[in-house]
UniProtKB/TrEMBL annotation:
Broad enzyme group: oxidoreductase
Keywords for the protein's UniProt record, in alphabetical order: Cytoplasm, NAD, Oxidoreductase, Signal
A single cellular component GO annotation: cytosol
Signal peptide region: 1-24
Stored PROSITE patterns: D_2_HYDROXYACID_DH_1, D_2_HYDROXYACID_DH_2, D_2_HYDROXYACID_DH_3
Keyword Oxidoreductase: yes
GO terms for MF: formate dehydrogenase (NAD+) activity; NAD binding; oxidoreductase activity, acting on the CH-OH group of donors, NAD or NADP as acceptor
UniProt protein name: Formate dehydrogenase
All residue ranges annotated as the D-isomer specific 2-hydroxyacid dehydrogenase catalytic domain in the record: 45-350
Pfam families named among the record's database cross-references: 2-Hacid_dh, 2-Hacid_dh_C
Organism: Sistotremastrum niveocremeum HHB9708
Length: 378
């Protein structure tokens, strides 16, 4: 078990950067990841004498985030409205000892800088992996079956079956591959198997245990270009780190089958913004779908909002919400409380939740030496 810092004083300052839920959060208390509902931990912290600062204001030197981080002991952030904890901010965060990601994915924190200051970073592993896996399957289907243009046609009052059927296919008989076969990637494979794909492939520096591989009938491909060139559909399910930033770029896109579909619910910056836009517009990709953006909130003019393939479809982009269903929010709010409670009591953390601790990586998933399998980008 991993032993996390024992705190001797009881009063701590906890800073949470969450998104504003507005009237939706007032009407729906299960929207726990909002500034209004405060992960359901405000009263608990107050009753225990701790200070709890909650805000959505995260950009610029005068933001609540950048000012309050200077005195906070604990930072809670979510990947949905990420407070980007840069090396510079970590340097200024004199009291910071623990960062909790309410959800999964801690790439918005400079993990190397956190290690230098021996700050613990923990996330609620597994809390929303089913939520994302379901979204991935939906995104694959909506691209392959050309769903969005078909629905838009109906809303417009039109009815021209051939216009949408000309680019609609079955998932059955296709080759689907996941980059990353961890908690989410594996669940995607499990859910795809009943669709009778031609083959399921995965690209991951960590091979699956033989029985897990057999259970989903998946084949590991160790070379990225070889992997990409075999897939009709590629789904990205690895963390964003130094080895995966820009992994899907102008060069790697050349290895895709012409007209393949790409789904990315992992992190926006794994895919190059312009390269993906150009690939969809040229028809090299038949479509791109997902919920993650290279900066969040995505600017109004972000090209992924409006890209279309030459037949006018191929865009399944939505805001970052696949991992924040109401079911997921209950799990990550509970998990956040558990991590914080254990830390306040000086108890051990669940090792599955610890990303960095005592100046080192506790998980291989984010380790900076984890370059693509062949060690270089193609
Ligand atoms: P995990 O740690 O269980 O699995 C990640 C897998 O990626 C591991 O098997 C690891 O070996 C593999 N991997 C790492 N670097 C790689 C590389 N360079 N090439 C190939 N494989 C590599 O993580 P989990 O729970 O499956 O989550 C994956 C990611 O999904 C998270 O890090 C996060 O960025 C994203 N996510 C997105 C959510 C959303 O709402 N859209 C919600 C939850 C997670």
């Amino acid at each position: 078990m991993v032993k996390v810092c024992t705190l001797l004083v009881s009063l701590v300052v906890v800073l949470a950067i969450l998104y504003d839920g507005g009237s939706a959060a007032e009407q729906e208390p299960r929207l726990l990841g909002t500034t209004e509902n405060k992960l359901g931990i405000a009263n608990w912290l107050k009753e225990n004498g701790h200070e709890f600062i909650v805000s959505s204001d995260k950009e610029g030197p005068n933001s609540v985030f950048q000012k309050e981080i200077e005195t906070a002991d604990v930072l809670i952030t979510t990947p949905f409205h990420p407070g980007y904890l840069t090396a510079d901010l970590i340097e200024r965060a004199k009291n910071l000892k623990l960062c909790i990601t309410a959800g999964v994915g801690s790439d918005h924190i400079d993990l190397n800088a956190a290690n230098k200051k021996k700050i613990t970073v923990a996330e609620v592993s597994g809390s929303n992996v089913v939520s994302v896996a379901e979204h991935v399957v939906m995104s694959i289907l909506l691209l392959v079956r050309n769903f969005v243009p078909a629905h838009e046609m109906i809303e417009r009052g039109d009815w021209q079956v051939s216009q949408v059927a000309r680019n609609a296919f079955d998932l059955e008989g296709k080759v689907v591959g996941t980059i990353g076969a961890g908690r989410i990637g594996y669940r995607v494979l499990q859910r795809l198997l009943p669709f009778d794909p031609k083959e399921l492939l995965y690209y991951d520096y960590a091979p699956l245990p033989a029985n897990a591989e057999q259970a989903v009938k998946a084949r590991r491909v160790e070379d990225l270009a070889e992997f990409l060139s075999q897939c009709d559909v590629v789904t990205v399910n690895c963390p964003l780190h130094e080895g995966t930033r820009g992994l899907i770029n102008k060069e790697t896109l050349k290895h895709f089958k012409k007209g393949a579909w790409l789904v990315n619910t992992a992190r926006g910056a794994i895919c190059d913004r312009i390269a993906v836009k150009e690939a969809v517009e040229s028809g090299q990709l038949n479509g791109y779908s997902g919920d993650v953006w290279d900066v969040q909130p995505a600017p109004r003019d972000h090209p992924w909002r409006t890209i279309k393939n030459p037949l006018g479809g191929g865009n399944g982009m939505v805001p970052h919400y696949s991992g924040t269903t109401l079911d997921a929010q209950a799990r990550y709010a509970n998990g956040t409380k558990d991590i914080l409670d254990r830390w306040l009591k000086g108890e051990e953390q669940n090792p599955a939740n610890v990303i960095v601790i005592n100046g080192d990586y506790a998980t291989k998933a984010y380790h900076p030496t984890n370059l693509p399998l062949d060690g270089q980008r193609k």
